[in-house]
Structures are given as C-alpha cells and as structure tokens.
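ok so I'm stuck.
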Amino acid sequence: MVSQALQPDRAIVTDDWMPISWDEFVQLVEQPEYKECKAYYHNQKMRLETMPVGSDHAKEHLTLIMVISLFGICRNLGLDGRDNCTFRKVGHEEFQPDIAYYAGERANQILQGTRIVDLDRYPLPDLVIEVADATLNDDIGEKRLQDEELGISEYWVWDVRARKIIAFAIATDCSSRRIRVSEVLPGFDLNLLETAMRRSWQSDQSAVGQWLMEQWR
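replied:
not stuck anymore, here's the structure
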C-alpha cells in the first residue's frame, strides 16, 4: 500500500470530527504539536482533543480508578486497567479513552513495553470509561457508537457537571442498552458509584475508599 502523504496546507480541525485518510491520521498524530492530544479515528474521520483537563475532571478521573480498583480487590476480581491508553486497529480504528479495564481471565495479556495496543494482536478492553466535562455530547454520541461497532462489552460516561454515570452494556449485534448494575464487574452497583463520587467532594479519597470497603464487606 502506498502511504498517502499529509497535505502540507491542509487545515486541521481539532476538538471535532473531520474526514481524513488513515495514513494522514497516523502521520498527523506523530507530529510533535499533536502528540499530547487525545486521538480517535472512526468511519474515516478523526477527532483530536486539545482541551486542557481541568481540576474537576482530573480528580474524578482518579477517583473512578480508585473505586473500580477497590471493588476488584474486595471481590477478588482480576482487573487490569489502562489510563489514557491508545488502542489501534490498523487502517480502521483508534481510540484513547480516559480509562479502560480488562477483567477476569482477560487481565494481564498485554506485554510490558507495549506503547500502542494493537487490536489485531490483543483483545478489546472489557470496560471503557470517558470522563465528560466539556465533551459530553461526543462521549455519549460518536464515541459510544464507535465502541458499539467495535463490540466493547461496557461503555460508561461520567458526567462531571451532572454528577451521574451513564452506562451502556453492548450486545453482540452492536446495540446498546442502559444499565445500573455492571455485568463486566458483577454486582457493581452504579448507584453506589454515584454516591461515592459525590462523597469525594465532601471528604478525601482515602475516606471514600474506607466507606466503600464497608459497603462491600
């Protein structure tokens, strides 16, 4: 295949979806000025997110990771998480979710030293989570459709402003349905997650973690 060169005078749109070839997309995300962007590619369009992460987003991102990891510890559930990791299906798809988890027997399959997770070599993550502060419409729109088509088992969006979780289970026919109890993390009550996230602004994360472990005993 002949690589298509990136047109030097091409106007690049950021923080929105724009049509682009796969070869141009890969060249673009390797350029220094875009290496820090979150990158997505789906249906021959790309999205480069350049918006800086605010304090609320950063805190709730970390709190979500803490809560899910604690649940795995308390329930003896194998979990293997990724933070802002790039997943790529060469020629077709790329996504860089805020949080991703492999669960159960699928944990610990990715070799150390892997920079980009090659989806032709490794499995899809079981759970993908986006933390939505300024990107809610896209997180529940195009990104959700991408995860549906890929066949990721569950897709969650944490709405920072509304302080609620929007969670979908994705079926083998690429359709999705809303859930309030996780199926990837058996018995994980999303109502309890919302309560924990709200408590994190009233007390520190360690105190929230202690409270959660009491609920899960």
